[in-house]
UniProtKB/TrEMBL annotation:
Keyword flag Transport: yes
Top-level taxon: Bacteria
Protein name: V-type ATP synthase subunit C
Similarity annotation: Belongs to the V-ATPase V0D/AC39 subunit family.
Length: 331
């Protein structure tokens, strides 16, 4: 059993690294830059800068983000003397990569990107799917892939690949997080927010409650019966039903925006900000695992913000629209 004081060295290291994380001021300067090239150059003065000599084009930003996160993971592993913290996030990437490859395989996709942040290299995964031989993969991934394939064959509904893989992934992540109250709380809240968004989409699609039952994930803090009991109510008035949950503000603002704009973009942003606010508890903790989890979650959020900015700049999206899509920063 680890004590709260066992990670003091790692936490001290993390607190130093937190001081170099990107804040909203840096991100806003990148948004205001004349073009993607100028925005990309601004990363020279950040921890991402050491990788820009090797990747000097703004179109290489994904490689730079990947190398920086890999560096962060290596630092966390060394500082904690354990790979258990980063493994949690690497396993998630394995599932997400397999989800991408299942779609590519079934829909003849060609342009796709696999994360190098998983426990299994993209090369191995590509070969497994190309040869339809998954014997090299761990059992939990083999089962998830086979069950997802079976469900798609039965239903011929593309979305079921997502639903099936997500169910296996979150079941696995929940089990990995079960013994750590902070991480477990994060996953439970993430599941709740996914279920809320799924519920709204299903209502907008005018699908049946049986479809909802097939989609909702286990292990959320909101019981599934909560969603079943309000299924027949009008979406416009559903925000009130969340009034006494932890998600009152997210539901009120998110549902309103979704119905008015026809887009889930603002709801997605509100959900990400909610989870970041939970993760930020680590920033104000001095002991235990909370600062470590918070830091990693904060860095992954930072990577997401950089992607939003760089994709926006590369596609000449208006500055105000990029700003609207931006989430909060960890620091």
């Amino acid at each position: 059993m680890k004590r709260d004081t066992d990670y003091l060295f790692a936490i001290n290291k993390i607190k130093v690294l937190e001081n170099r994380m990107l804040n909203k001021s840096i991100l806003n300067r990148m948004i205001d830059a004349a073009d993607a090239f100028d925005a990309y150059k601004m990363l020279q003065e950040t921890p991402y800068g050491e990788f820009l000599n090797e990747h000097d084009s703004p179109y290489d930003f994904e490689n730079v983000i990947g190398k920086h996160i890999e560096d962060v993971y290596r630092t966390v592993d060394e500082a904690t003397g354990s790979t258990s913290f980063t493994r949690f996030f690497r396993v998630r990437e394995d599932y997400l990569n397999c989800k991408v490859l299942l779609k590519v395989k079934n829909f003849n996709g060609e342009n796709y990107h696999l994360s190098s942040m998983g426990t299994i290299s993209p090369e191995i995964l590509n070969n497994c799917f190309k040869n339809e031989d998954f014997s090299e993969l761990p059992e939990y991934l083999r089962i998830a892939i086979e069950k997802s394939k079976e469900l798609f064959i039965q239903t011929e509904i593309p979305g079921y690949i997502d639903f099936a893989m997500d169910r296996f992934m979150y079941e696995h992540l929940y089990e990995m997080a079960r013994e750590d109250s902070f991480l477990r709380g994060y996953i439970e809240r993430e599941i709740d927010l996914i279920n809320i968004r799924s519920f709204i989409r299903i209502k907008l699609m005018d699908e049946s409650i049986d479809f909802l039952k097939a989609v909702l994930l286990d292990h959320g803090r909101l019981d599934k019966d909560f969603f079943y009991n309000i299924f027949n109510e009008q979406l416009a008035g559903l925000a009130d039903r969340f009034k006494f949950t932890d998600y009152a503000s997210v539901a009120e603002q998110g549902i309103k925006s979704w119905l008015e704009s026809g887009s889930s973009m603002e709801m997605e942003r509100l959900c990400d900000n909610y989870l970041l606010e939970y993760a930020r508890q680590g920033k104000f903790s001095a002991f235990g695992t909370k600062p470590i989890w918070g830091f990693i979650l904060g860095k992954l959020n930072e990577a997401r913000l950089l992607r939003i900015v760089m994709v926006g700049k590369l596609n000449d999206i208006a500055k105000d629209l990029i700003s609207e899509r931006l989430r909060d920063a960890y620091v």
